[in-house]
Structure formats: structure tokens, C-alpha cells
Amino acid sequence: MAEPRTVSVPIRFGPFEVSPDSGELRKNATRLKLFGDFEHGLNAAVKRLCETLGDSANQPVYIETVPRRGYRFIATVDVGPQLPSPSVPSEVEVAVVEGTNSGVRSRVRRMIWLAAVLAPLLTGVLLIGTNVGGWRDRLLRQGPKPEIRALAVLPLVNLSGDPQQEYFADSMTDALISQVGQVGSLRVISRTSVMQYKGTQKPLPQIARELNVDALVEGSVLRSGDRVRVTAQLIGAVPERHLWARSYDRDLRDVLTLESEVARAITEELDAKVTPDVQARLSRTRMVTPEAHELFLKGVFSSDPKKALEYYEKAIQKDPNFAQPYVGSSWTYIGLGQLNQMGSNQAFPKAKDYARKALELDDSLDEAHIALAESLTEGDWNWSDAEIEFKRAFEINPNSAAAHSGYAWHLMFVGRMEEAFAEAKRYQELSPRLTGPYTLLAYLHYFRDRDYDEALAQLRKAEEVNPNCCGYLSSLIRGWVYREKGMYKEAFVEFQKVPPVWRLGHLGNAYARAGKKDEARKAVQELMEYTKQGLGTWEVALVYAGLGEKDQAFEWLERAYKAHDKGMCYLKIDPPLDPLRSDPRFQDLLRRMNFPSNQAPSTTPQ
Predict the structure, then answer these.
(1) pTM score, two decimals?
(2) Domain for residue 16, yes or no?
């Protein structure tokens, strides 16, 4: 893998050419005289430079005066003869595009002003703008490095001009977050939290305060043909201060290695404590067929699960050794199972197989370990092996919000509620200003304490952050709470807003407990159509439990057990089943579910 360019190459703008080695400025091969020293002041030096370039203060072409702040170089720059593609601008030009067209704060401007008092102006500007020989990195450091314990990687900007390439920039952002997140000494904010700042004009210190971090990474991605350029800069938050900046040009086949390389450079700049395992993972060289990578990204950003699976399969065909499409397929099947779009006995085995195949190719993918853990939890009820996979995911990426959220659910299912709360809190730390942690806490209060008022309070907090936060999930939680509080009319309204299988099961249970037995039985009849697709067996049992018809309830719990219905994960904790818990048949089901026998929730009778 080629290292970032550090060789000195000619820097051209208009008819002018600068040699970084000699510091000479030439016009059409004729050497021009600049100035000797800065004793007469910066303004005189800039004036002399503008005269040399033939620039006008009123209509500048090369150097623009910024009132009360200094000067900046505004011309398009050509760095040497070997750019990846004629359509890819140089690094200084990238900085200008970022600052004017894309709404990204151009840190190169400040570098240029700093250069003006440190070297002959033009040469200094260009050396810093292009970071030749690492000049920019050295000049940006003033005083000791600040201690950085928390970091956010802001969404990288797509500079291609093609909206279809947004997913490529977003995927690079995801990858950087995941790679840097492997460093356990750092708290790295989750992807979902930072994406809310995509295209924002908020000042960096404000973003840092909102995310409660010490530093931010921002940058851009420019893809042209089979080449990709990434620029990244590390900025201390309070006070705002540049710590590091670098650009990388790579072949698209090296994109996976590039992601690790940028992450490694960031961690080195932070002097973060990196374990040998993490260092090894960030130093690996990995190649991928560009077509396969493109298909994979289309799958990731497809809103249609069927279409996503088609993209992943095509990516696998293009490059069978590329692990990520297997991970993508695994998560797609998990989603289909969790959202009642495919029977549990179909969805989770497929998810498990794809996750295992991904891990055969690359055991360092934390998202593959999480997917396998989810599949083992909801599909196999293999609690011990699932926990091993969650723990392995944490070893790889202790900052994975998905791992902390998924593990919280796993702990909740088996009744380890205090540990589940701890995971939910960690999830909240990694995902500030998001609704997900609040809804997770709402679930926990509902299941652990039967504290229905606190569950509603957490849901209100989520809706304060985003009034449209949770879609039908907020209605589902609210319906559960109202039902358990005996507020049946309110529960009926909320349950009508959720998808069919959930709606029919929980609405049917509420109807039965409200004395509306005919409506409850009608719900059962409608659910029968879904049971033909391997769905709804758990929900039928809920309705019969509400009706007080225990024999039928246990009959359908047995069917749910045989169908490996994911609803059986709630057997130990779900309030609607409380009337069944004293029955020996219930105890037998608990035994066969292999729940840890000594981890029963303290508030729930067994």
C-alpha cells in the first residue's frame, strides 16, 4: 500500500509555478523576485506579492483580503503532473470547494493566514495548503496537545457533485467511526448521533458541547473513476484549535485499507492507548473489487429489504471474499424477522448463516459478531453463545452503540435487569441527543419494575428530542402502558396505530381484559391468516391469556415454541403473561427456553 505523498512536486496556478524545495516563484519559466524579509510588515509583503502576480485588490484572482482577519489564497491550484484524474481538484482547491460550495468550514484558510508570518507568503501558503512535507501539521501545533477522551467524527462531505455518491461519503463516515471506535481509551459518538449534523452550519464548539466531546474530525470524500481522495482534519473543540490534517489519494480497490489508515492516523495523533490487537487490525491491508463495494453500498442504503438482498448477493458474486455483503444480508434478515415480515424460523437461521460466513472471512467485524449474537438470541434462544458474541463485539469495538443496545435487550430477556440498565446508560453516552436510548429505558422500566409512569416519562423525553421519533413504536409502548394501567380506551387508540401482527395480538389482549370478548376472538381469527406464514403464534397466546383461557394460551405458547417465534424471548418478563406464571406448564416452558434459572426478575412471580 502506497503511503501518502510527501515528495515535492511543482505547484501551479495560472501562469505561475512554485517549487516547494527551492521556494522559487516562476512565471512562464522566468524566475520572479518576491521579498527578502518581513521587517516592513505583512501588509507590505502581501502588496509586493500582489504586484508580482499582477493581482488587483478590487478584483482579486489569487489573493483575497479578509477584513480584520488577514488574507487567503483563492486560485485553483495544480499540484504537479500526476493527479489521479483531471476531474479531481488539488488539495487546496478541495479546501476552497469545501468552504464555499459545500458549507464545510475551510480550515485551510486559517492555515494560509498563519503561513503569511512564517515564510515567504506564497510558498508558505501553498506548502501548508497541500501539506507538503507535513508543513501544515507542524505549523498547526501550538503548545501541548490537549487531552482528548471523547471524539465525534462528523459526516464527511461528498465533493463529487453527484448526489448518487452521498452514500459513498456516508459509508466512509460509518467506517471511520467504527474503526476509531475500536480504541477503548476513547469515547466515540455513534453514527446516528453525528448524522444529524450532516450539512449543518452550527459552529464546531456548539456541536462539541451538544455531543459532549473534546475533539471533532471533519473532512471530505471525492471519488472520480477508480480513484478516491479523502481529506480529514482533527480539531480540538474548546478552544477551537487545529491539531492535524491530511489528505489521501488511493485506488478504489484500496478503500477498506484507506479507512483503517485514516483511523490509525487519527489515533496516533491523539496519543490514544491502542492495544496490539487494535493496532494490528488498523494496519491490515485489504483489497476489494470496486464493483462489489459499489453493490454493497447500494444494498446498505436501499430502503427495500428485497432489493438490498439482491444487491448483497450480486456483491458476493463479484467478490466472494468480501465480508461486508454477508454482514449486510445478515442484518437484513434480522430486520425482516423482528418486524414480522418473515417468520422467525426462516429469518433468523438465514441471518445466523450469513453472519458466520462473514466471520469466516473476517473475524474482526464487530457488526458481524453483533448480528450473530442477535440471531442466537432471537432465533435459537442460545443465551450463552449469544453473550460470547456480544462480548467479542465489545472487545473489538467498545464504542459500538449497536452492541450496547442489543446486549441490553439480551440481558432484559434473561432477567438481568440491572446490567441491562447499565448497558442502556452506556448506549445513551454514545448516542447523545437521540431518542433510541430513551425508548430503551422506557422498555426497561415497563418490564423490570412494572413502573408504567416512568416508562411514559422516558417516552416523553424521547419525543421532546424528536416529536416524530419512534413512529409506531411509541404507540406500541404507550398502548402497553395504558393497558396495564387499565386505561383500555386509550390503549385501543394506540394499538390501532401499529402494524397488523402486533396490533392484533396486543389489541386482542386489551379487548379481552376490557370485557370485549367478541372483539378479542375476532382478533384471533384475523391472526390465523398470519400463522399460515409462520407469524403470530405468540400473539394468539397473548389474546387467550387475556381471555383467561389458559389451556388455549398454553397450546399457542407451545406452537410459538415449536415455530421458534421471537416472541418467546419475552416469556420471562412480559406483564400480560403474569396470570399464567404459577402454572407448572409455564415453569416447564421456562426450563426448555434455557433461561438462566438464577436470574429471574425480582418483581415477577415464577
Answers:
(1) 0.77
(2) yes
